[in-house]
Amino acid sequence: MEQDPGTWIDAVSATIREAVAQIGNRKSDIVAIGVSAQQHGLVTLDARNEPIRPAKLWCDTSTGPQAEKLNKAFGATEQLILRTGNIMVPGYTAPKLLWLKENEPHNFRRIRTVLLPHDYINSWLTGERQMEYGDASGTGLLDVRTRQWHRPLFDFIDKNLFSKFPSLGSSMRPAGLLRDSLRQEWGLSGEILVSAGSGDNMLGALGTGNIKPGIVTVSLGTSGTVYAFTEKPVIDSKGEIATFCDGTDHWLLLACTMNVAVGIERVASLFGWDVPTLEAKVGSVPPGARGLLFLPYLQGERLPNLPHGSGVLHGLNLENMNPPEIARAVVEGITMGLAYGMKRIIDLGVDPTELRLTGGGSRSAVWQQIVADVFGYPVVALKISEAAALGGAIQAAWTHCQVKGRPMALEKLVRNLVKIDKKSRKEPRKNNRALYTDLRVRQNDLTRKLAAGGFL
Question: N or C of the chain: less Cβ packing under 10 Å?
Fold first, then answer.
């Protein structure tokens, strides 16, 4: 799973030009930019600051052997958690670096700078190179408790690797100023600040108001994530839930599943449906999909850790072997996978009062109700569903105010800009709670048995 970083730059440039055109005469009001981007991706630059090869992405599981090698070298789960707060999973950046050294040594030798996706975009915007705690915590190389790099991990991969990383600092410091050439190209005036930015989940927390205990964000995007704010680092001794630094110099407990939008998109494509038709078909089938159960591991999985896993439709019969039942089973299977992560987060001491949905899937009323029923908590969507982008704007505004000597409380900014869609609120239905509890047990049991037998 790889992508040319130049694609991101083309998209950023086109998007900003379009946004500036829509703003019209108000473009002179633009004073800051904040960048949110996918986590974990490996961008390697050569001596000319050009990408050496396509970036390996968060969903690339070819690095499974390298992740296992790093886990074993540092004492497996318990010892690595003591060192960094997390175990090493294939999606993190560290196994990608080891993979590159082992599989493409000629490219590894050319590396002069290592960046994450949002750092690369920031570098293009400002000419400056740096990292911030939030996205850096997803590399697998940071001790999330101290916010310090764990040098032995760097040295195990390569003795010269540490020198390839830019400076590391607070998520609340600016990355720099927008380059004059870009400012002129886009018709902007004055100094335009670029904030530190962060990973999509870190800024998604800002954009959903998840900056205090009690609120839990559920992101239904390309991947699925469930995360909660914590004042202090909370470490999962089992290594199933990641502890990341957030975009406010605090922490997030985060569960990630890899297969969300991909499953929905494939079902829609398979049956030739558009999104409204898909939603109607899912809503036409009763909870439980008439006995059909889906294990959603189409491209491997992170929770549970099955990098080479595959999907399974279980329980097919003459009654449920129909497109609507299959679609319902896919949505339910994806949601129940996320619910396992929610349960583990609660086990670690989080006491949810409300679930806030973000991402493309959050706009579906049918899916909103399924999430409420499966998770057993009230859910609400937001008026701005792309919360990570809103979070980037909030961080940029907060940073600008700080730099200009007019500090504003982050809580005030969030309260003013994050708006709940009250009409979207869904309460869990008691008559479905027991059904989904049983289905989750069945899903977990089936996954465990098939994985143990080598069938996943």
Answer: N
Q: What are the pLDDT digits (tens) for 134-148? A: 999 999 999 999 999
- Region for residue 295 given its phi and psi (left: phi exceeds 0; alpha: psi -120 to 50; beta: otherwise): beta
The answer to whether the bond into 286 is cis (omega within 30° of 0) is no
Handedness of CA 17, 22, 28, 29 (dihedral sign): negative
Q: Structure tokens of 375?
A: 């998770």
Strand partners, 177: 193
- Of 135, 200, 236, 246, which one is the catalytic site residue? 200
Helix (H, G, I), strand (E, B) or coil at 201: helix
Residue 429 CA: distances (Å) to CA of 60, 220, 287: 37, 21, 11
> Which residues are paired to 318 by β-bridges?
none
Mean pLDDT of 152-165: 98
Going along the chain from its start, the domains and CATH numbers come out as 2-196 (3.30.420.40), 204-456 (3.30.420.40)
Check: CB of residue 66 under 8 Å from CB of residue 93: no
Please, which residues bridge with residue 193 across strands? 32, 177
Confidence at 129, pLDDT banded by 50, 70, 90: very high
Q: What is the pLDDT of residues 209-246, one digit of tens each?
A: 999 998 999 999 888 999 999 999 999 999 999 999 99
Q: To the nearest whole number, what is the mean pLDDT of the chain?
A: 95
CA distances from residue 313 to 261, 293, 302 in whole angstroms, order as listed: 17, 6, 19
Asked whether the CA dihedral 402, 406, 407, 411 is positive or negative, the reply is negative
Burial of 444 (0-12, 13-18, 19+ CB in 10 A): middle
- H-helix or E-strand spanning residue 148: strand 148-149
**Could you confirm whether 200 is annotated as catalytic?**
yes
Say how many residues make up the chain.
456
H helices within 272-322, ranges in order?
A: 275-283
Please answer whether residues 27 and 104 qualify as being in contact, where contact means their C-beta atoms are separated by less than 8 angstroms: no
CA angle 32, 38, 44 (to 5 degrees): 95
How is residue 240 written in tokens?
């199933």
**How far is 133 from 145, CA to CA, in rounded Å?**
11
CA-atom Rg of the chain in angstroms = 22
Cα distance between residue 30 and residue 52, in whole Å: 34
Secondary structure (3-state) at 195: strand
Q: Output the six-digit token pair for 227.
A: 């995360």
Give the pLDDT confidence score for residue 305 in this predicted structure.
85
